[in-house]
Amino acid sequence: MSKADYYETLGIQKNASKAELKKAYRRLAMKLHPDRNPDDKSAEKKFKNIQKAYDVLSDEKKRAAYDQFGHEGVDGSAGFGGGAGGGFGGGGGGFGDIFDDIFGGRRQGGGGSRVHRGSDLQYNLSLTLEEAVFGTSVDVRIPAMNKCSPCGGSGARSGSHPESCSTCHGQGQVRMQQGFFSVEQPCPQCHGTGKMIKDPCHECHGQGRVKKSKTLSVKIPAGVDTGDRIRLSGEGEAGANGGVSGDLYVEVKIKAHNLFTRDGNDLHCEVPISFTTAALGGEIQIPTLKGKVKLKVPAESQTGKTFRLPGKGVKSVRTASIGHLYCHATVETPVNLTKEQKDLLEQLEKTMAKGGNRHNPREHSWTDKGKTFFEDIKGWFDTDSK
Question: How far is CA 155 from CA 173, 238, 370, in A?
Fold first, then answer.
């Protein structure tokens, strides 16, 4: 019976790179591994085939011989039972990586108990605009899995120590043999830790970790913005079996401000200007994050006019650049007028009417456009009626 082509077995082209080869092998190995398909004999057979194909193609010399002579060029050296390079791993050591992908964790040293890095944590922190702009220090309370203090994370009662597992002799792994095919698995006795705790700690019950809340002081640098994250190395959850702790990420969110809105390093605010000041010009006071400043309003200012105050924005947390403050004018119509004030405005309106469109150019322009629009509409209706 003819043997399957190794490239077809792995689903790759003949000119596939080492990276493509490894990626294809890892994907198939995870899918077809016997531990994931315990009752599927066809999956076990396919797993053996992809392991053999990878063993040959991951070795440059074997691959060259296979490309030139086919199976006959490598059958004497690439089999599971004998010759150079037999067994798991081939020339690239890929099975160790696959093992870790399937079972999780990493094996310590030369194959001892597996340790796990602690989980990273995220804390969402709300700040006022002033706190974000100028920086501050805040205390945050974090519930997390922490190293047990009484046992120092070992899981054993104070004064005692974990013992080596008698089943795997401290390796954390056991080798299962099925004919010429073998595979390593986490030890069922110690669950891959390589050790047994006969006298567990009363605090953590042998886990080495306890769930507690801890309070951390977090320094917030000046200039942070919504979405920025501050990393506190090693302040996440404690690792299992002596693994390193994860990290804590503090993600910033800026609260809404009653005066300013922020856009990057720039600030924006709306500034109401009295009818008289807008018409005649004048000087008004503008609030900034560092105090009040005076702003000159030119005569005949309109709603929507924007004034830029350089350097009155936010200093970047990453560079030394400082943003600007943009003041958007809103001309305020007088309200709650007395009879005398109304009479004065009516007199003003009469004097302005004598000047034609000189005093209200935008109003007259808009009125002209409206007339043109209605004339166009009338023309459409006249055309339709014909």
Answer: 20, 13, 84
| Topology annotation, domain 6-104 | Helix Hairpins (1.10.287)
Q: Which two tokens stand for residue 166?
A: 């008698």
Q: What CATH class has 261-332?
A: mainly beta
**What torsion, rounded to 10 degrees, do the Cα atoms 186, 190, 193, 195 define?**
-140
CATH tag for 121-162+197-254 (out of 3.40.50.620, 2.60.260.20, 1.20.210.10, 1.10.10.10): 2.60.260.20
At 378, the pLDDT band (50, 70, 90 cuts) reads: low
Tokens representing 213?
């809340």
Q: pLDDT (tens digit, 9 = 90+) per residue, 283-318?
A: 999 999 999 999 999 999 999 999 999 999 999 998
pLDDT 10s digits, 215-266: 899 999 999 999 999 999 988 887 776 678 889 999 999 999 999 999 999 9
Same fold, 6-104 and 121-162+197-254: no
Q: Kindly list the distances between the CA atom of residue 65 and the CA atoms of 48, 49, 93, 125, 261, in Å, as whole numbers in the listed order.
A: 21, 18, 20, 61, 69
Pull the structure tokens for residue 383: 């055309």
Please tell me whether residue 299 adopts helix, strand or coil conformation: coil
- The CA angle 286-291-293, to the nearest 5 degrees, is 40
Maximum Cα–Cα distance for the chain, whole Å? 113
- C-alpha to C-alpha distance for 127 and 111, rounded to whole angstroms: 47
